[in-house]
């Protein structure tokens, strides 16, 4: 579905990703693991077209999307939940969702479906995003991405700083999307939250993929976690 | 004239200044707010508005019709020119905050010199479409209670009232555009987080071009409105730019309500101090206000402190 092949990318003169490749399949959760600064967020930004590629290709169902203008990438059906949520802080919950709906001109019933998944947001539509609690903000960031009915969903550390009940709520939604056939790329620090749900794990270090393993292999060879993550 | 009517006259003159200034500063503030671009050429868009008003009004045969033609066409022409400047210059320097300052200084000189070559160094007027003198009443507390009378010299022209009214209508329209429409939502999202806006399908470069054009169009509109009162001259942009910066700094960069309040403050103090004391004192007070704001409230009256 989403194929990243040998990409180089970075920030201006600073190259971060070096020949990075990975694939995300429909109905599967691919988990991107690596230490802080390994290049996980950078990989997500490169997929979203927010960083120029100096080499390599990114394709979505065969279409080359690696060199589209950044605003065209989400219109192909890629929903992005950035690290740190990146809500439009001064806009209301409803306006943040409206921007998600506008991305691909989603029909109105999509909003009802999304609010079904996150009923707490439905009660807070007129509230400014910056006044929500951390968990509610993460729900809003997730809901905003779901408003474009994504085929591929990128989640960058969605459980960072959340209490367990919120983590569980987010996890349930991710598993549900997986069962609906969405291709999911997940960056997560909390291994316990990941290992039970992931289908495939990609370890990255210094902007390069070191190893790709199926979830079953990983359970058989836990020493991989120690080597790449130090846990 | 007694003090009261005299003060009212000064305040009305100040309100005209405030109206024009508010339009211009709103454009400057919008451009800075959304694009983080300090547009040093903003005063030249105002000047172009005034100069082109002379040209367009002449082409349309002068008179009231000529003025109306200028009022409609000139902001559009100047806006289109600004869009072209955005796409050919500002986009090329990547909207970098420092490099856009240098780039807009370049645009300033180009616009000024081209105007000098094409239009010449003379100041020229455009006739107001209507210009009746309206005498205003004042209340007098006589022996038999309050009564109205019409002091000699207390009057305003209908055109000046029109300028105030037009500014109110346009600024209200701008407010509705920013807070109630989709395009306003898109502009605000771009302002709040450019990268995330892109990740949700917002073509930020097109938004920037639109905002730059809208900002310049507001300055040009202010220029058209002012020519029947003040003549069009190729150097008129400098003072206007300075006053707009003063207003925007006092009001808080990027805040429309702050811009309005500051424009009223500066316009009224300018009108009143100029009439009672001297225009120089008015400028001194305005500059002092900026200094006070910068020291005690650097983010401006209505601006938000950086997080
Ligand atoms: N805006 C930026 N400009 C320059 N370098 C950056 C920027 N953002 C991240 N980096 C660098 O890129 C590398 C990878 O960062 P990142 O992708 O955020 O790591 P993580 O795996 O923790 O998400 C780090 O060395 C970081 O310092
Ligand atoms: Mg990261």
TrEMBL record, chain A:
<dbReference type="GO" id="GO:0015658">
    <property type="term" value="F:branched-chain amino acid transmembrane transporter activity"/>
</dbReference>
<keyword id="KW-0547">Nucleotide-binding</keyword>
<dbReference type="InterPro" id="IPR027417">
    <property type="entry name" value="P-loop_NTPase"/>
</dbReference>
<dbReference type="GO" id="GO:0005524">
    <property type="term" value="F:ATP binding"/>
</dbReference>
<dbReference type="Pfam" id="PF00005">
    <property type="entry name" value="ABC_tran"/>
</dbReference>
<dbReference type="InterPro" id="IPR003439">
    <property type="entry name" value="ABC_transporter-like_ATP-bd"/>
</dbReference>
<dbReference type="GO" id="GO:0016887">
    <property type="term" value="F:ATP hydrolysis activity"/>
</dbReference>
<feature type="domain" description="ABC transporter">
    <location>
        <begin position="2"/>
        <end position="231"/>
    </location>
</feature>
<protein>
    <submittedName>
        <fullName>Amino acid/amide ABC transporter ATP-binding protein 2 (HAAT family)</fullName>
    </submittedName>
</protein>
<comment type="similarity">
    <text>Belongs to the ABC transporter superfamily.</text>
</comment>
<dbReference type="InterPro" id="IPR003593">
    <property type="entry name" value="AAA+_ATPase"/>
</dbReference>
<keyword id="KW-0029">Amino-acid transport</keyword>
<dbReference type="InterPro" id="IPR052156">
    <property type="entry name" value="BCAA_Transport_ATP-bd_LivF"/>
</dbReference>
<dbReference type="GO" id="GO:0015807">
    <property type="term" value="P:L-amino acid transport"/>
</dbReference>
<keyword id="KW-0813">Transport</keyword>
<keyword id="KW-0067">ATP-binding</keyword>
TrEMBL record, chain B:
<feature type="transmembrane region" description="Helical">
    <location>
        <begin position="273"/>
        <end position="296"/>
    </location>
</feature>
<dbReference type="GO" id="GO:0005886">
    <property type="term" value="C:plasma membrane"/>
</dbReference>
<dbReference type="InterPro" id="IPR052157">
    <property type="entry name" value="BCAA_transport_permease"/>
</dbReference>
<keyword id="KW-0812">Transmembrane</keyword>
<feature type="transmembrane region" description="Helical">
    <location>
        <begin position="241"/>
        <end position="266"/>
    </location>
</feature>
<feature type="transmembrane region" description="Helical">
    <location>
        <begin position="101"/>
        <end position="120"/>
    </location>
</feature>
<protein>
    <submittedName>
        <fullName>Amino acid/amide ABC transporter membrane protein 1 (HAAT family)</fullName>
    </submittedName>
</protein>
<dbReference type="Pfam" id="PF02653">
    <property type="entry name" value="BPD_transp_2"/>
</dbReference>
<feature type="transmembrane region" description="Helical">
    <location>
        <begin position="6"/>
        <end position="33"/>
    </location>
</feature>
<dbReference type="GO" id="GO:0006865">
    <property type="term" value="P:amino acid transport"/>
</dbReference>
<feature type="transmembrane region" description="Helical">
    <location>
        <begin position="207"/>
        <end position="229"/>
    </location>
</feature>
<dbReference type="GO" id="GO:0022857">
    <property type="term" value="F:transmembrane transporter activity"/>
</dbReference>
<keyword id="KW-0029">Amino-acid transport</keyword>
<keyword id="KW-1133">Transmembrane helix</keyword>
<dbReference type="InterPro" id="IPR001851">
    <property type="entry name" value="ABC_transp_permease"/>
</dbReference>
<keyword id="KW-0472">Membrane</keyword>
<feature type="transmembrane region" description="Helical">
    <location>
        <begin position="45"/>
        <end position="61"/>
    </location>
</feature>
<feature type="transmembrane region" description="Helical">
    <location>
        <begin position="67"/>
        <end position="89"/>
    </location>
</feature>
<keyword id="KW-0813">Transport</keyword>
<comment type="similarity">
    <text>Belongs to the binding-protein-dependent transport system permease family. LivHM subfamily.</text>
</comment>
<feature type="transmembrane region" description="Helical">
    <location>
        <begin position="159"/>
        <end position="178"/>
    </location>
</feature>
<keyword id="KW-1003">Cell membrane</keyword>
């Amino acid at each position: 579905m989403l194929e990243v092949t040998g990409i180089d990318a970075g920030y201006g003169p600073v190259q971060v990703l070096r020949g990075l490749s990975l694939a995300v399949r429909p109905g599967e959760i691919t988990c991107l693991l690596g230490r802080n600064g390994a290049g996980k967020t950078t990989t997500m930004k490169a997929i979203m077209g927010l960083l120029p590629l100096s080499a390599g290709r990114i394709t979505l169902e065969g279409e080359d999307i690696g060199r589209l203008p950044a605003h065209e990438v989400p219109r192909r059906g890629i929903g992005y939940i950035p690290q740190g949520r990146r809500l439009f802080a001064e806009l209301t919950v409803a306006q943040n969702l409206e921007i998600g709906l506008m991305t691909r001109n989603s029909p109105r019933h999509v909003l009802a479906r999304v609010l079904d998944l996150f009923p707490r947001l439905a009660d807070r539509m007129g509230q400014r995003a910056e006044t929500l609690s951390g968990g509610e903000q993460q729900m809003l960031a997730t809901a905003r991405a779901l408003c474009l009915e994504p085929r591929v969903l990128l989640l960058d550390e969605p459980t960072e700083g959340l209490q367990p009940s919120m983590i569980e709520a987010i996890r349930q939604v991710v598993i549900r999307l997986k069962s609906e056939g969405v291709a999911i790329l997940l960056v997560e620090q909390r291994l316990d939250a990941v290992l039970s749900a992931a289908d495939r794990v990609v370890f990255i270090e210094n902007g390069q993929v070191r190893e790709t393993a199926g979830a079953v292999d990983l359970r058989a060879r836990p020493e991989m976690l120690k080597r790449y993550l130090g846990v | 004239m007694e003090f009261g009517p005299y003060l009212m006259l000064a305040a009305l003159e100040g309100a005209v200044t405030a109206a024009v200034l508010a339009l211009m500063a709103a454009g400057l503030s919008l451009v800075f707010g959304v694009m983080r671009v300090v547009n040093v050429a903003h005063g030249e868009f105002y000047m172009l508005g005034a100069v082109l008003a002379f040209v367009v009004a002449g082409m349309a045969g002068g008179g009231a019709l000529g003025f109306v033609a200028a009022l409609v066409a000139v902001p559009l022409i100047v806006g289109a020119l600004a869009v072209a400047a955005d796409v050919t210059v500002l986009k090329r320097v990547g909207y970098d905050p420092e490099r856009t300052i240098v780039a807009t200084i370049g645009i300033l000189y180009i616009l000024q010199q081209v105007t000098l070559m094409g239009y010449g160094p003379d100041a020229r007027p455009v006739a107001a479409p209507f210009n009746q003198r309206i005498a205003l009443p004042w209340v007098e507390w006589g022996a038999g209670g309050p009564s109205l009378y019409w002091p000699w010299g207390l009057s305003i022209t209908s055109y000046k009232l029109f300028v105030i009214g037009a500014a109110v209508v346009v600024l209200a329209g701008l407010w509705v555009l920013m807070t109630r429409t989709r395009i306003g939502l898109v502009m605000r999202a771009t302002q709040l987080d450019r990268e995330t806006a892109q990740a949700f399908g917002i073509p930020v470069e097109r938004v920037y071009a639109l905002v730059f054009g809208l900002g310049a169009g507001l300055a040009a509109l202010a220029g058209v409105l002012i020519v029947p009162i003040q003549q069009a001259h190729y150097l008129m942009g400098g003072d206007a730019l300075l006053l707009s910066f003063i207003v925007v700094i006092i009001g808080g960069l990027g805040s429309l309500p702050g811009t309005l309040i500051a424009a009223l403050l500066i316009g009224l103090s300018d009108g009143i101090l100029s009439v009672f004391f001297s225009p120089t004192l008015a400028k001194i007070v305005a500059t002092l206000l900026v200094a006070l704001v910068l020291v005690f409230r650097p983010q401006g009256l209505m601006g938000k402190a950086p997080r």
